[in-house]
Amino acid sequence: DEVKNLSKLEGQLWIGMLQFLMSENCQRNYQLNSSNQASILKLRAHFHPQVLNQLPALVDLQRYLEELSLLQTASSRPPLILEQVPEFYTALENKCNGKWKDLAFKHYKEIFCMSKERMKKQADKFAATYDMDVMSDLLSEPPKCESCGEAAAKRCTSCQTSWYCGRECQVKHWPKHKESCKLIAKTMKDAKDLKAAEIRVVLELIDI
Fold first, then answer.
1. What is the value of pTM for the model shown?
2. Is pLDDT at 39 greater than 60 in this prediction?
3. 160 — alpha (psi -120 to 50), left (phi > 0) or beta?
4. Which of 6, 58, 60, 155 is the Cys-Cys partner for 10 at CB 3.0 to 4.6 Å?
């Protein structure tokens, strides 16, 4: 009867359980307790005659399970329970209890309803963040001349990225720097124009 035939997957599962439970390493190292013993013994309910007929090797596994059912095992340890304590949420709730509407209104005004003056201050702050003078101050080492490698005090006024110790080195390095200088300067100008356009759009939306 095709209904009683084991599928390939079912056969692989049975063979896997046979090799696992009957291996010496498993029987020597696997610590049995009342909980996992009961789980393993649930396999006995699936030993139908058609299973044993198609996989005779499972007779050894069936005998092992019968012997296992007679074995006295230690009781399982109580499960470890981990409780997540929301300390930050609890502290915030205690501090702001009864003030949620006021806080929501405050953030609504500051974030979603900025005034023109506040918007301009925010834009200036963003612009200052990407100011080349500010970024150069963050360098761990003083800048070096692109030409001779000595300490540099002057920077290319066009691209704002290359440093030189003096005009002589800058003129000497210009043939190599020319193309990259134009490209960087154009990129920075386009970025500034785009940022200015975005700020204008935001200011116009505030007026609506």
1. 0.35
2. yes
3. left
4. 6
